[in-house]
Design goal:
By secondary structure, the chain is of the alpha/beta class. The chain has one domain (6-268): Aldolase class I (TIM Barrel, Alpha-Beta Barrel), CATH 3.20.20.70. It is 36% helix and 20% strand. The chain contains nine helices and 14 strands. The chain is globular. The protein starts with 5 loop residues before the first strand and ends in a 5-residue tail after the last helix. The model has no long low-confidence stretch (mean pLDDT 96).
């Protein structure tokens, strides 16, 4: 099997310090959490940004400051800024980090229930995001929360509306109202992607490490972090993103998978080609 790429989603847009005091808001806290994950083995940092009071934002300049600071602290790390933002943001707001020409960015693949809210990603929104990434030579990580999301983005790729092969998918399973975090659902999704694609599994909440173990055994990649799960074990809050990454690294060692460095991850993800 190829080496395992670990992604750390260090803060998201929804979790708060009230839920776990280690959730980062400030630039300094973001750097602290990114470095803890990087030092534990994460080759990729998935980045949302907040204002210092914790309010989620897609402000381009806030992204610039945070991304530059993380790059300085974590040499060579792959950064994937979010274009999902927070529920209720406009498409124009969400697209701001693409103006910084990152090598990768997320592209959400359809509208879905998101707990008690609706995360809107209409076809026009997705076409606009795909067009921007094509124009700015950004490789998308395709975020699929539902089975239908995968079919949708594959059809768009065939039409040239979003970047095509080789494609990178992130299967985010276990969001309330979306596809559950079962091994059966993960296997179905992985069997449906084009040959030559790469994929990552993200289990939400208590499903984080069980889905990680399945992905490691199946030859895929893993995302963990405070955006998705705040606990190291049931009733045990994680003290840092690094603790969550380190647990995945331990699982990988037990299952015989080596951890990819950022340079190795770039080769696996076909970046820079």
């Amino acid at each position: 099997m190829e080496k395992l790429i670990i992604t750390a989603a260090i803060c998201g847009a929804e979790v708060t310090k009230a839920q776990n005091p280690a959730v980062p808001y400030t630039v300094e806290e973001m750097v602290r959490e990114a470095k803890s994950a990087f030092d534990a083995g994460a080759a990729v940092i998935h980045v949302h940004v907040r204002w210092d009071d914790g309010t989620p934002t897609q402000d381009r300049e806030r992204f610039r400051v945070v991304l530059d600071a993380i790059k300085a602290a974590c040499p060579g790390v792959i950064l994937i800024p979010s274009t999902g933002g927070a529920v209720g943001m406009t498409a124009e707001e969400r697209l701001q980090p693409t103006e910084l020409f990152p090598e990768m960015a997320t592209l959400d693949c359809g509208t879905c229930n998101f707990g008690d809210e609706v995360f809107e990603n209409t076809m026009p929104i997705m076409r606009a995001f795909g067009k921007r990434m094509l124009e700015n030579h950004i490789k998308p990580e395709y975020e699929c929360f539902e089975k239908g999301h995968l079919d949708t983005v594959l059809t768009m790729a065939k039409k040239g509306e979003v970047p095509g092969a080789p494609m990178q998918f992130n299967f985010v399973l276990g969001v309330p109202g979306c596809t559950p975090a079962t091994v059966e659902d993960l296997v179905w999704l992985v069997k449906s992607i084009p040959a030559g694609s790469t994929w990552t599994a993200t289990g939400i909440g208590r499903h984080s490490f069980t889905l990680a173990a399945a992905a490691i055994a199946m030859g895929g990649n893993v995302r963990v972090g405070f955006e998705d799960n705040l606990n190291l074990a049931r009733g045990v809050p994680a003290q840092s993103n690094g603790e969550l990454v380190a647990k995945v690294a331990r699982l990988a060692k037990e299952l015989g998978r080596e951890i990819a460095t950022p340079d190795e991850a770039r080769a696996i993800l076909s970046l820079g080609r």
